[in-house]
Amino acid sequence: MRVKVIGAGSIGNHLSNAARQLGWSVDLCDVDTAALERTRNQIYPNRYAAWDDDIRLFEASKAPTGEYDLICVGTPPDSHIPLGLAALAEKPRAVLIEKPLCTPDLADAQKLYDLSRDLGVAVFTGYDHVVGKAVEQTSTILTEGAVGTVSTIDVEFREYWGGIFNAHPWLDGPQDSYLGYSNRGGGASGEHSHAINLWQHFAHACGGGRIIDVVATLDFVRDGTVDYDRLCLANVTTQSGLTGRIVQDVVTQPPRKWARIQGDQGFAEWHCGFKSGCDAVIHQVGGAESSTTLIEKTRPQDFIRELRHIEHALALENLPPHIGVERGLDTMLVVAAIHLSHQERRSIRIDYAKGYTPDALSTR
After folding, report:
1. Rounded to whole angstroms, how far apart are CA atoms 241 and 136?
2. pLDDT for 245-285, tens place per residue?
3. Torsion of CA 290, 294, 300, 304, to 10 degrees
4. What three-state secondary structure class fits 240?
5. Which of these CATH numbers, 3.40.50.720, 3.40.50.970, 3.40.50.2300, 3.40.50.300, describes 2-128?
6. Which end of the chain is more exposed for a tag (fewer CB within 10 A), N or C?
7. Residue 234, SS3?
8. How far is 337 from 83, CA to CA, in rounded Å?
9. Are the C-beta atoms of 102 and 109 separated by less than 8 Å?
10. φ and ψ at 92, to 5 degrees?
11. Which among 114, 236, 119, 63 is positioned nearest to 12, based on CA atoms?
């Protein structure tokens, strides 16, 4: 596979390393030459022990075009759609766009979706948790009906975002990037939208369908500079009537990344970072004692597994939906509905027949 990675920040380094671990060729580009030097001299060698001389670095305007199997967009969310459209125009086999796929206003989201279908280019989104081993095991429990009929799903991504700034030491705080601005894809609703995506994934696994109703509350930080939601609370309902709760925040220490699926015969729980170096799946059926399965993994392995999933998906006639563009855009519709629900102080209905546009959202 020939890969171009756009964006030399934390995600760009992870994706570049993952591709190299798979033996793929990598061209990494950025509009900022200082970011490229930081990658070569600091980020990559500090994370992965040494710089990889086989990675070619390019200023974005000088990067090759039209010769890649996979183009990865690892830039801030407010640039995802424009760069995604440009990547599609190169006609690679696939494009991977980091999460969140776009901004909450859904600007040109439908255009991206339509162009990908017109060109026959597969688009994936960076919700890598849903292709992790622990989520896979949890999903199998659901699809096999082990916990019976699912009554409700709860998912939480509660994590103080100090870790993000530790990984980006050139940033002094949320004001220095998109993170401090919800309308640019930052804040808890955008940055931790893994929780929304996971809720949707588990709902599909148990036959619950898509989310169609959203009631949400956001807690904003607005100080004249930043404007972001630090807490995002949503109650959701699917097409089948399945209801549940999603919590995302950027304040909780230590972090809690957790899901619980409650059925009438038992439950299943997913835990990210259950203990150092391990995720976990806990499940219980009937009156039996609960069982815990530990799954060892590192953060770099998340991205290796994500790229392997894409490689496998491209080899199949029917693409698995897990991190496909439809699931990513469904997540963005829920993010948009959350913001509208908070503004209107009422329930928001999602009508998927109206596409990935604000017209798909209406008050009830």
Report:
1. 24
2. 999 999 999 999 999 999 999 999 999 999 999 999 999 99
3. -80
4. coil
5. 3.40.50.720
6. C
7. strand
8. 24
9. yes
10. -75, 180
11. 63
Q: How far apart are CA 54 and CA 62, in angstroms?
A: 18
Domain 129-363: assigned CATH number: 3.30.360.10
pLDDT band at 317 (very low <50, low <70, confident <90, very high): confident
Q: Dihedral sign, CA of 227, 228, 232, 237?
A: positive
Q: For residue 190, which of 200, 181, 203, 199 has the smallest C-alpha distance?
A: 181
Q: Tokens 């699912």 identify what position?
A: 150
Residue located via tokens 């710089």: 51
Report the DSSP pairing between strands 361-363 and 348-350.
Answer: antiparallel
What letter does residue 310 receive in the DSSP assignment? H
Q: Which amino acid, 307?
A: L
**Exposure class string for 96-109: b at 16+ Cβ within 10 A, else e:** bbbbbbbbbebebb
217: tokens are 């509350």
41/62 Cα distance (integer angstroms): 21
φ, ψ for residue 47 (rounded to 5)? Answer: -85, -40
Which segments of the chain belong to CATH 3.40.50.720?
2-128
Q: Is 114 helix (H, G, I), strand (E, B) or coil?
A: helix
What confidence tens digit (pLDDT) does each residue in 330-350 have? 999 999 999 999 999 999 999
C-beta of residue 52 within 8 angstroms of C-beta of residue 44: yes
On whether the pTM is more than 0.70, the answer is yes
Give the sheet arrangement for strand 94-97, strand by strand.
56-59, 25-30, 2-6, 70-73, 94-97, 122-125
Residue type at 39?
T
Amino acid letter, residue 235: N
Instruction: Considering the chain, tell me which residue range(s) the CATH 3.30.360.10 domain(s) occupy.
Output: 129-363
